[in-house]
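CORE FACILITY INTAKE
Project code: CF-77B
Contact: R.S. (postdoc)
Sample description: multi-component assembly, two entities in total
Requested service: structural model of the whole complex
Turnaround: standard
Below are the sequence entries exactly as provided by the requester. Do not edit them.
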Amino acid sequence: ILNVEQSPQSLHVQEGDSTNFTCSFPSSNFYALHWYRWETAKSPEALFVMTLNGDEKKKGRISATLNTKEGYSYLYIKGSQPEDSATYLCASKTGANNLFFGTGTRLTVIP
Amino acid sequence: DGGITQSPKYLFRKEGQNVTLSCEQNLNHDAMYWYRQDPGQGLRLIYYSQIVNDFQKGDIAEGYSVSREKKESFPLTVTSAQKNPTAFYLCASSRRASGGNTGELFFGEGSRLTVL
């Protein structure tokens, strides 16, 4: 069982603020890091799948970075909007293990 | 529309009864997965299947069974042997990725099982 940790557990930001949160994972035998957005009453949706150290991916106002040597990934949201309110999940795959999920960061954007 | 369909959305069961949750996908994905979510915990893998007629135990397989007779379908049976079956269950699928990797997962909307 891998130790995939996400912080903070939850946060509230004002509309228009930028925010970021962290996913930490074991760095040895790293294969891939996934980010998902899970809106209430909907299915989780993939944001990014990252495999290379130093990789940075972007989708609209959301971007993510990956540091496989130290075992962390940051997710950034620029100019948060109410529709960004969701739980953001990260998941890590290392070695022969399955994909392990963190407990998520619950983001609330206040209009 | 392509996607994953889970049914039922809500299910109540008496203790000692088996119950089967349905998961169907029309994405032509080879791999399918069942996850369980409990409050304060990350999604945990119950079973997965990389190809038809083959499946593997995940991290918490005890008390569950699956079958994969068709590419599109991966039903999960929660048996009476599962000690704490009340939970939210998510089904997912992915293309089979190379090099030991898991491709991005496509999820259903989940099934909430309550044991009375």
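Facility notes:
- The longest strand of chain B covers residues 44-51.
- The interface with chain A takes residues 4, 35, 40-45, 48, 58-59, 90, 99-110 of chain B (CB under 8 Å).
Invoice: internal transfer
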